[in-house]
Design goal:
It is built from 12 helices and 9 strands. It is α+β, with helices and mostly antiparallel strands and about 525 residues long. The longest helix is centred in the middle third of the chain and has 77 residues.
Length: about 525
């Protein structure tokens, strides 16, 4: 798995790239500026030598002119020769001082070795001339003709040397033009490379900023708006592996939680809606059943009485009298079905009866144990097991007889749904402020259609004549009257079923044995 990178690390990387761009551009700019400055300083320093070289050439020319005039017999020129020679020495000293001052610079024209060598040779010539003049006649400052002739070659060499000084600078300038051409081409290449590198780095910074900052923010904003619009199935996908991705994961988890809560609320709304509809149906059926039961009971009693009277008038039939036997069997069938109909009407009356029932604190586990012990002795349930999970008993505020009827109906239904070696597990526990009673069997199970209509009156999937379809409706009515809820679940046909009853816990106090009208909770 790729390592998560923090945003501060990415910002640090972006800052380093910006610093690299600034450093690269600064280095390129400073390199060009300093190269230009060194060139200007070199030209300035070398140009300062030209006046001194020209002054030295002028002084040497004056010495030669005085020498020529002195050789021609001009006594004044012969006397001025020493003065012009001293002026030439002073000009040479100034030129050499300027050379020495320029040696400290490090510029393109800093090589002055030829100038220094020429200056030394000029100094040697001037020294030689001064020595020849002085040895001729130290007492006479005016040199004689022989001395002037002797210094002539030295003056010619001196003229050649002083004339060569400006040529050195000209040669250096020609060389500098070639050097500068190479250097400025290198600088241009360096500047272009720096500019291209800076553009690449800036483009990289822009791409990383878009990928790490702007794109995640845009996706987060878009995803938040879709979720806010109710699209809880939308998920934000980020591959930045930083705090933005963690925020997207948190938003996705929150959205998933919202979706689960919404689905759960929808399911509860649908469940409560079905319960309300079922309650209204039960109430309507209850009112109808009360009137129908009273109207049907009298005719059923008359039918049963007439059938019994006819049966008593029949003489003991001879075994060979088939007609009498058929008549007797039909009369017995009429009586049986009449009494069966009378039982149904009694259940209808019990279903619709709204009377006062006293409620008291009732122990669920003990009540379930009593009903289970009674059913264990019923022959048709032989071989089938009722298990009660051990645990702390819980108290509920209920009418014990009605609650026994609920447990009895649920246990009988569960035992009827399992095979001969089947098992029914009953558990009672506390959950918050409610008592939870569950009945779990490994029997035939139920499909979605059966679960939807399970608590409706007269709905049954048993064989004809084996059920009225009122048992679970009565159970639902009793549980609802007690302020509780009943739910049925099943994984499918053949995979068993579970009935879950939730009842309020009994309050500790004097209200534990109060008389509460039956149906008052439902009416509220």
């Amino acid at each position: 798995m790729a390592r998560r990178r923090k945003i501060r690390e990415k910002l640090l990387l972006g800052g380093m790239l910006v610093a690299a761009v600034v450093a690269l551009l600064s280095a390129s700019g400073f390199l060009g500026i300093y190269s230009y400055r060194n060139l200007v300083r070199g030209l300035s320093c070398r140009s300062a030598e030209l006046p001194h070289a020209s002054r030295l050439a002028d002084r040497v020319a004056a010495v030669r002119l005085a020498h020529a005039r002195a050789c021609a017999g001009d006594r004044n020129a012969a006397s001025e020769f020493r003065a012009y020679l001293a002026a030439a020495v002073a000009a040479l000293d100034g030129y050499r001082a300027e050379l020495a001052a320029g040696d400290v610079d490090d510029e393109p024209l800093a090589d002055r070795s030829r100038e220094h060598d020429t200056a030394r040779r000029i100094a040697a010539c001037l020294t030689e001339i001064d020595a020849l003049v002085r040895t001729a006649d130290p007492a006479d400052p005016t040199p004689d003709r022989d001395t002037l002739v002797a210094v002539g070659p030295e003056l010619d060499a001196l003229a050649v040397l002083t004339a060569a000084l400006p040529s050195f600078l000209q040669e250096r300038l020609h060389e500098l033009s070639r050097e500068v051409r190479t250097r400025y081409r290198s600088l241009i290449a360096t500047t272009w490379a720096s500019a291209i590198s800076a553009v690449v780095l800036l483009a990289t910074i822009g791409a990383l900023t878009y990928r790490w900052v702007f794109r995640p923010l845009r996706l987060l904003g878009h995803g938040s708006r879709r979720v806010a619009a109710g699209d809880f199935g939308y998920r934000i996908r980020l591959d930045s592996r930083d705090e933005m991705a963690e925020l997207a994961d948190a938003l996705n988890d929150m959205t998933q939680r919202f979706e689960e809560i919404r689905d759960d609320l929808d399911r509860q709304v649908q469940l409560r809606t079905r319960e309300v509809v079922r309650g209204e149906q039960l109430a309507s059926v209850g009112f109808l059943a009360a009137g129908v039961a009273h109207e049907i009971n009298n005719p059923l009693a008359s039918i049963a009485m007439c059938a019994e009277s006819l049966e008593s008038r029949l003489a003991p039939a001879d075994a060979a009298d088939q007609e009498a036997q058929v008549t007797r069997r039909y009369l017995e069938l009429i009586q049986t079905e009449a009494f069966r109909c009378k039982g149904i009407t009694e259940k209808l009356l019990d279903f619709s009866r709204l009377g006062e029932r006293r409620r008291q604190a009732t122990a669920l586990a003990a009540l379930v144990a009593d009903v289970a012990e009674m059913l264990r002795h019923v022959g048709r349930f032989k071989g089938r097991t009722i298990e009660i999970e051990p645990g702390q008993d819980v108290l509920v505020m209920a009418n014990p007889q009605e609650l026994k009827q609920v447990v009895l109906n649920l246990l009988v239904n569960a035992l009827d749904s399992v095979e001969d070696a089947g098992r029914v597990v009953v558990a009672a526990r506390r959950s918050g402020g409610e008592a939870i009673l569950t009945f779990t069997d490994d029997g035939c199970g139920m499909d979605e259609e059966v679960l939807e209509h399970l608590f409706e009156p007269f709905f049954t999937r048993r064989k004809s004549g084996q059920g009225t379809g009122l048992g679970l409706s009565i159970v639902h009515r009793i549980v609802t009257d007690h302020g509780g809820r009943i739910e049925a679940t099943s994984a499918g046909p053949g995979r068993g079923a579970t009935f879950r009853i939730s009842l309020p816990l009994a309050a500790v106090g004097p209200v534990a044995d109060a008389a509460i009208p039956r149906g008052a909770d439902q009416a509220a």
